[in-house]
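Hi all, posting the design record for the shared folder.

TITLE: backbone redesign
STEP: 1 of 1
STRUCTURE INPUT:
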């Protein structure tokens, strides 16, 4: 019986060790701690929405690389629309449905627009990032900046960036206004 008990304890220990790292969390993308976070630029948070904003779909159709742009939308279109370890977020077109507006009480992430095809979500979203002087996203978390969270309505002023040969649009944010809810 003693051998069986020892075997059971060792087996349990092996199972615990082998499964301890087996979850869906991305350990490489751990949240930025206050000690390691880079400060966001002064003036990034706008108290009033920048004028002349276009919706995401219209902006994606017309924006040229390097052009100053203003985009209106809401934070979402992805399961994790605000990066945990970089100053990056996904902004969706007002016309992209979210699950908050539909009767889905069991939807844990109503902002991800999971009911829409991937092609639709891709066409109706832009990536917004706050970058350093070398064009690299800052090691900061935008979550809770001026109340920013998934489903927040935002207006972002910045510079359009279009990677060569791509339909992708990235906006390097200079100002972010979060509409109070």
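Okay, here is what came back for every position:
SEQUENCE:
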């Amino acid at each position: 019986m003693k051998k069986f008990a020892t075997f059971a304890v060792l087996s349990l220990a092996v199972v615990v060790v082998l499964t301890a790292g087996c979850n869906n969390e991305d350990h490489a993308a751990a949240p930025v701690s206050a000690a390691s976070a880079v400060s966001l630029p002064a003036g990034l948070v706008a108290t009033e929405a920048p004028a002349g904003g276009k919706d995401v779909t219209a902006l994606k159709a017309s924006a040229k690389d390097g052009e100053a742009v203003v985009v209106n939308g809401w934070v979402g279109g992805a399961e994790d629309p605000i990066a945990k370890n970089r100053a990056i977020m996904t902004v969706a077109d007002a016309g992209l449905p979210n699950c908050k507006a539909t009767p889905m009480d069991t939807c844990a992430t109503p902002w991800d627009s999971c009911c829409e095809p991937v092609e639709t979500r891709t066409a109706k979203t832009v990536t917004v990032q706050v970058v350093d002087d070398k064009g690299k996203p800052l090691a900061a978390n935008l979550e809770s900046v001026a109340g920013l969270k998934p489903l927040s309505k935002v207006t972002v002023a910045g510079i359009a960036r279009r990677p060569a040969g791509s339909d992708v649009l990235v906006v390097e944010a200079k100002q972010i206004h979060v509409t109070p809810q």
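COMMENT: The chain has a mean pLDDT of 80.
Let me know if anyone wants the other runs.
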